[in-house]
Design brief:
Layout lengths: L1 H36 L2 H15 L6 E5 L2 H15 L4 E3 L2 H4 L12 E5 L9 H9 L3 E6 L5 H5 L2 E4 L15 H21 L3 H5 L6 H5 L3 H4 L1 E2 L5 E2 L5 H11 L3 E5 L5 E6 H6 L10 H4 L1 E2 L3 E3 L4 H9 L8 E6 L2 E7 H6 L4
Parallel strand pairs: 1-2, 1-3, 3-4, 4-5, 7-8, 11-12
Antiparallel strand pairs: 6-13, 8-9, 9-10, 12-13
Length: 337
Amino acid sequence: MGALTKKKSESSVDQDIGTAIRALETEADGLLKLAKFIDTRFADAITAIHDMKSSGVQGRLIVAGIGKSGHVARKIAATLASTGTPSYFVHPGEASHGDMGMITSNDVVLMLSNSGENAELSDLIHYTRRYSIHLIAITSNPKSTLAQHADTCLLLPDVPEACPNGLAPTTSTTMMMALGDALAVTLLERMGLTKEQYKVFHPGGKLGQKLMKVSELMIGYDALPIVQPDAKMDEAILVLTEKNLGSVLVVDDKGNLKGIVTDGDLKRHMAPDLLQKSVTDVMTSGPKSIESDALAVEALDIMTKIPGHYLTSLIVTNDGKLTGMIRLQDCLQAGIA
């Protein structure tokens, strides 16, 4: 009895794995076919959205859909907004009960419906036609009401759903999601959005942390522990203790950095006459540095790139001039790792 149960269990596991693979392969096949459907209509949609953003009055992309298409529409709106295209989701049902007033003639509407015949979409379609608002459709039915009334129709290929009954939206919603990503990435590239500009839309996330600049984390010049090249080590240690930054910078009258005295330097020169030594005898010349407009993650990489050894701080310069200091602990506390 136990052997039969075990055999049945193994058979069930194999069946589950097979089902999962078939579902993924079905959806992957849909994406490959979708890629072949990209044509000038996609470029027309990109132009309509891009021109909306660059017109005299700032327009927005309104993304709408019902049911599972509505869930995908919300995600597409979020992705577009996070990549620099002003976008938000409007529920077609709510639009029929007052939210239509949120949509202006400067906007573009992107509507998702696999069948293109959802009754809930009719009022919003009519509204775009009445006020000459550019309507972009994503649908698999070229003869549907949505497709026939759209200014630009992005067709999905006719491929089976991953659901064995052909009922649950699976492949169709995957294609919609991917097409939304394609729109977002194409718009991002057309506008030339940089990493730094992208950070503006993600100030609180991990991505925002990784895109922080050195200048945002560094300790400014006025707070630096600085001594003159003719100073003795007793003065340097007083400054080291007072500033509590783990090192002392040796800077001449013209503001040129001559070297740095670190905890490691102190340990290497520890002797009865240490306090009477000149800082130039103890300091490390030519310390590693980084420009203030570099990313903080680059500073972290410099400080930790040697296996088994790391720097606790890094000099910050601006066009070669001493500007500040960035510390390893500040990078870690900011979540940059």
